[in-house]
Amino acid sequence: MNRRELNPDSSPQAAFGARVRKLREDRGWTQEELAHRMGYSSTHMSSVETGRKLPTLRLARSADLAFGTGDMFEREWREMRHGSLLEGFPEYVGYEGRAVELRLYEIGIIPGLLQTPEYARVLADSAVKRQAITPEQAEERVSFLAERQAALERTRPPMVFVTMDESCIRRPVGGTSVMAAQLARLVEFAELPNTLLQVAPYEIGERRTFDLPVNLLTLPDRSVIFYAESQAQGHLDRESVSVIPMLTAYHQLQGEALSQAASVDMINQLRKGMQ
Q: What gap in Å lies between CA 56 and CA 59, rounded to an integer?
């Protein structure tokens, strides 16, 4: 391997690869020997060691087994994966996967759990063009979102309440075909037995209770937590003195929003305009 191909400081995945290489060389193993121990090709391991290929969770766990490092590589993988996520969000997702009720409010974009892969991809690629994230982080965002969505498709799915500002459905993202498919996805979501979809129209004006996206989760023990985020950071709160006013504000917003039937009608009118 040409060591000049690898700069450990260039990215988290390069640092991961450098650690793999160092431990391999410390043990006197060739790349082929390590690849055999881990169940991968030597070409694949070369790409990981030089930071050209993103490691997966399976690979990280295989590395820990091969090197006897406990869960060191798995933890490094998780830190790398969450590196492009806002503070507090990875912890929130852990609760999201076992919540019995979700209450979501979003402004400007479709809530992540309702996004089509194409819509999510456009948003991620746009962030790359702005140099807000790397292409690798964009890939992780899209795949991470898909895993979150899949986690809700369980035997006993949670009740999901979604209230969206009207800007979410009117803001064009990715062109007509992407938006048309995304709006169709919203209609499909509204037809599920465990969902409630509402649009908060522009007309409610100052009666809109939130100015930032908010997620409220009811856990199996009926406790409630909320997660809110700004452009730069996220905040997770479990204290009832803070959570109860947020839950009250959400219910007030639902009272001002359109009914699900009226919301779906608004969405379908927008879809007609795209045909």
A: 5
Q: How many CB atoms lie within 10 A of CB 32?
A: 12
Residues in CB range of 255: below 8 A, 6 or more apart: none
Q: Cα–Cα–Cα angle for 123, 51, 7, nearest 5°?
A: 110
- Two tokens, residue 153: 């498709």
- Tell me the DSSP string of 28-87: T--HHHHHHHHTS-HHHHHHHHTTSSPPPHHHHHHHHHHHT-TTHHHHHHHHHHGGGSPT
Strand partners, 163: 105, 198
Q: Topology of domain 86-114+152-272, per CATH?
A: Endonuclease; Chain A (3.30.870)
Residue 54: CB atoms within 10 A of its CB come to: 20
Q: Where exactly are the structural domains of the chain?
A: 3-83, 86-114+152-272
Residues 87/93/99/104 CA torsion (nearest 10 deg):
70
Query: Model-level pTM?
Result: 0.71
What would the CATH number be for the domain defined by 3-83? 1.10.260.40
- In the structure encoding, which two tokens stand for residue 230, read together? 């700004």
One-letter amino acid at 20 equals V
Distance CA 27, CA 269 (A): 65
Give residue 85's pLDDT.
Answer: 56
> Which of 32, 41, 152 is CA-nearest to residue 102?
152
Tell me the per-residue pLDDT of 100-130, one tens digit each, with 9 for 90 and over: 999 999 999 999 999 999 999 999 999 999 9
Asked whether the beta carbons of 98 and 220 are under 8 A apart, the reply is: yes
| pLDDT bracket for residue 79 (50, 70, 90) | low
**Over the range 218-241, which residues count as b (16 or more CB within 10 Å of their CB) and which as e?**
beeeeebbbbbbeeeebbbeeeee
